Amino acid sequence: MRILKSHPSYNKLLYWGKTISITALSQMVVQGLGFLCGILIIRLLPLEEYALYTLANTMLGAMTMLADVGVSNGVMAQGGKVWQSREKLGAVLMTGLHLRRKLAFWSLIVTTPILFYLLLHNGAGWLTSFLIVLSIIPAFYASLSDNLLEIVPKLHQDIYSLQKNQISVSIGRLVLSAILVFIFPWTFVAILASGIPRVLGNIKLKKIAYNFADESQKPDSIIRKDLMAIVKRVLPSSVYFTFSGQISIWFISLFGTTMALAQVGALGRISLIFNLFSALFGFLIVPRLARLPNEKHILLKKYLQTILLVFVFYTGLALTISLLSKEILWILGEKYSGLEYELILSIVGFCVSALAGVSFSFYSTRGWIIHPIIVILVDLSAVVSGVFIFPISNLKGVLQFNIYVASILCLMNLLYSLIKIKSIKV
């Protein structure tokens, strides 16, 4: 034992063991609560209401992406350079928050009319549509700052405080959903039950972040210029991918049935099982990738290790879920029975998208951005060709289409990451 403790790598291994254990345990609780909350809503909401809930949540994600368009990646990249200085990190954070609020206004202008139309198109009345749109506001308000605020404790690896706050928010969502949706099984109530705890958790998150970042700092014009350089380059592709990223939902909502919309939303909830590893990656690996020196051999080694780890994990989890497909569908309820093959397609699509996301996170935190015209042309080619190959008016066809498009984007991100690493001269 003494020999083991005296080994130069002992303290490092001990640190990583404790960090991963605490993070994994906390994320198991967070994701477990999120999964239970999702299943609860699936079971409590009528099929028609869950279809509207799926549509509203998808649009909320689109609104959040349009209010970001590269700001969070820019803050991570800039913050990774000055994370040891409270004042400089505060300036980066305040600049990012200021820019995010401006982008949020335009996000609302663009997405609100689209959501209203799609709700009406899928059978919601005018009053119901209005209430659903209003119910999104609390969650959208919290989203304007929470993922930027999380960057600060992530860079400082203050994982405990961050995850404690996440657990509190998850418990709040589960309790409110169980009480309110049981009494009032309506879409806007379910969305409010998720949004209100998120607003309260956002208040606590600010206190955590401001322990490491000086909140009195004013937005800095130089930092803003650097962030805007990223935003301008990312904006076209971000706007495009805001809608193309959930194209299966849009196709089903426009050309499919209400039942198919509810089914694709319910199957998507199973992917919450995968979020544990995604959260671990976001907490432990992405910030460290951002802090790595710009040296070819180090980046290549870490990148390949990360890709291999993600691939092995997701492949194993996908195989496990496919073997337990009937039992998993039983959890969703009788309304979603008989969708074993569709469940497997949904999980495969998520795995491929997750692998693409890992590569994107890697190169975006390095400040590397694929030219938006290239990204849009590649994806648009995949989408257009996929429309002719797969029947997008039914659930099975849309899920196959989703795998096809995600595979092409995954290949593009993998190749771009390797090309950028190889181009480093050091």
TrEMBL record:
Record membrane topology: Multi-pass membrane protein
Transmembrane segments: 20-44, 50-71, 103-120, 126-144, 174-196, 272-290, 302-323, 343-363, 369-389, 401-419
Source superkingdom: Bacteria
PANTHER family: O-ANTIGEN TRANSPORTER-RELATED, PST FAMILY PREDICTED COLANIC ACID TRANSPORTER
Record has Transmembrane helix as a keyword: yes
Name of the molecule in the record: Polysaccharide biosynthesis protein
Subcellular location: Cell membrane
Keywords: Cell membrane, Membrane, Transmembrane, Transmembrane helix
